[in-house]
Amino acid sequence: SRMASLTPAQRRVLSGLAEGLLNKQIAHEMGISVATVKAHMTAIFRKLGVLNRTQALHQFRLARFGGQAAE
């Protein structure tokens, strides 16, 4: 699956996104720069075939909840 192609760091960034964190907050929690978070986001979008954070989050939730998006 596309989700399986994500690196551990990309999964952590996506998990932070799912928790509603801002890039700055994700960067602080991971001990990386905001620019690195943005680079991970770009890679996540490319790997998942999405264009933005909302679409990436939707794909993450579909994968996490076995095909059902959380409402």
What is the element layout, followed by pairings?
Blueprint: H1 8-18, H2 23-30, H3 34-48, H4 53-64
Comma- or semicolon-separated keywords:
single chain, 71 residues, mainly alpha, 4 helices
Structure write-up:
The protein has helices at 8-18, 23-30, 34-48, 53-64. Helix 1 (8-18) crosses helix 3 (34-48), helix 2 (23-30) crosses helix 3 (34-48) and helix 3 packs across helix 4 (53-64). The radius of gyration is 11 Å and the shape is globular. It is an all-alpha fold.
Taking all Cα atoms into account, the compactness measure Rg is 11 Å
How many helices? 4
Cα distance spanning the termini = 22 Å
Strand proportion, as a percent range, falls in under 5%
Short account of what is shown:
The protein is mainly α. The chain is 65% helix and 0% strand. It is globular.
